[in-house]
Design brief:
Blueprint: E1 7-13, E2 23-32, E3 38-47, E4 51-52, E5 57-58, H1 63-87, H2 95-102, H3 117-124, H4 129-145, H5 151-172, H6 185-197, H7 204-223, H8 249-257, H9 263-276, H10 282-286, E6 293-296, E7 301-307, E8 314-318, H11 321-329, H12 334-337, H13 348-362, H14 370-384, H15 389-396, H16 401-407, H17 412-426
Antiparallel strand pairs: 1-2, 2-3, 4-5, 6-7, 7-8
Length: 441
């Protein structure tokens, strides 16, 4: 079967749907020779003045613009991939077929023409697996718009949808699957695909997170009476918790005191130390503005207070002297004067790449990353400054202390100090065991 059709994608700004603030949706128009065009809304809006008519993308360097252009790039890659897949199965492809496949629908929609029309209509009203995922994501997007859920978690849901699409094509040679065809083995096969069979395999924890989300979708389907019982219910998504060893305080000091002549690395060092003494995650540090600094109490202490991007829980930390020093360095920096951000922060990818260089020049024999800084903060607060677990949990913006327990494990410094203070209870000054009757109760 040979198919010589070509695909053309055009991204444009639908000004006729412009809202009162001048923002209009961005549309992808699919054209395939020999058939009518089809359109897909990419789910993003751009201002009239911020749309590049020549290059068909958003203008600017802010986070929102980057997200729009990233979505355009992702959609371009996805549609071209599905088009190539369809070329291997059909002699003639239409734009509507490509749109259907991208949206998780059958490439060709069948019309009902027999006497059992009502029964078939009832059956077809039950969505497929990917349609159910799309419904779930649409509901999630509405909660994100209301500030009830995180944009980062929404990205994870979109990633799960993509992984499911790729798995269905790899394992079953299909674009979708009816809910009643899913069996318990689906979960294990999906796990095997993610960890051993796809081109770029992922770790156990990430794979089980995708399966956990798939289980949530099927729970939603069960609640909606589309299936009798979730077939993946018995698949266990628990993972072995890898203990992350925080940096020792001497290592933190070594990084802080290192003379770094290269500006970009000096800024990355400051950002990393900033995280080590605030506990803020990357996306939260990236979004910090002077408005997040609040004066607290009679002593007029300066605090950083912000709704955590991932959970929406308020995280609050006192601004320690080392953080004040970092903030003062960037009072006249472009990050503050033009972009309104407290400190300069690169993209997550560049930041983590530069941290590898930083580790090398500082003589730190392990990988530095943004999440390690968060664990280091928890360790400093619990084991050196001896804050309670509840206080550390609040500073980290966790919903439960159970989550904090994975971050803040009791360390040898705290044990050592406690032992020094309590040693005399059990032993005499010369190290002899006290008589049982003389022990303090």
């Amino acid at each position: 079967m040979k198919n010589n059709q070509n695909i053309s994608l055009l991204f444009w700004h639908r000004k006729s749907k412009q809202d009162k603030n001048g923002y209009a949706p961005i549309i992808c128009r699919i054209s395939i020779k020999g058939g009518p065009k089809a359109e897909i809304a990419i789910g993003k809006k751009a201002h009239f003045d911020e749309w590049d008519l020549d290059n068909k993308k958003a203008k600017g360097k802010d986070k929102e613009t980057k997200e729009i252009n990233l979505k355009i790039s992702e959609l371009t890659v996805d549609l071209n991939r599905y088009f190539i897949f369809l070329q291997g199965r059909y002699e003639k492809i239409t734009a509507l077929m490509l749109k259907n496949v991208y949206l998780g629908k059958p490439a060709k929609q069948q019309k009902v023409v027999n006497k059992s029309e009502k029964l078939i209509e009832k059956k077809s009203s039950i969505p497929t697996l990917l349609q159910t995922v799309n419904i779930h994501i649409t509901n999630f997007e509405k909660m994100v718009e209301k500030g009830l859920r995180s944009k980062e978690t929404l990205k994870q849901w979109n990633s799960t949808r993509t992984k499911l699409q790729e798995f269905l094509q790899f394992r079953y040679g299909a674009f979708d699957m009816n809910l009643d065809k899913i069996r318990h083995a689906f979960a294990f096969d999906f796990y095997l695909y993610l960890t051993t069979e796809q081109k770029k395999v992922i770790r156990d924890a990430s794979a089980k997170n995708h399966i956990k989300k798939t289980k949530s979708v099927l729970n939603f389907a069960e609640r909606s009476n589309w299936i009798n019982k979730n077939p993946l219910l018995q698949f266990k998504c628990r993972t072995e918790e890898n203990e992350i060893e925080p940096l020792e305080i001497v290592e933190v000091e070594k990084i802080w005191r290192k003379k770094i002549p290269i500006r970009r690395l000096a800024e990355v060092r400051d950002a990393f130390i900033f995280q080590c003494f605030t506990g803020f995650a990357f996306q939260d540090v990236y979004a910090l503005t002077p408005g997040n600094i609040t004066v607290v109490g009679v002593a007029r202490e300066r605090w950083l207070i912000k709704d955590r991007g991932k959970t929406g829980v308020i995280e609050m930390v006192p601004i320690m002297p080392i953080i004040e020093e970092i903030l003062s360095r960037y009072e006249n920096h472009l990050c503050r004067t033009e972009h309104g951000r407290l400190i300069p922060i690169n993209s997550n990818y560049r930041y983590n790449c530069y941290l590898k260089e930083l580790a090398t020049i500082c003589g730190i024999n392990r990988d530095l990353n943004t999440h390690l800084a968060r664990h280091t903060f928890a360790d400093i607060m619990l084991n050196i400054l001896e804050f309670s677990l509840a206080e550390v949990s609040r500073m980290l913006g966790h919903k439960t202390i159970r989550t904090t327990q994975r971050y803040a494990r009791v360390g040898k410094q705290l044990i050592s100090r406690t032992y020094a203070n309590r040693r005399k209870i059990l032993f005499t000054k010369d190290g002899q065991l006290r008589q049982i009757g003389s022990l303090k109760r």
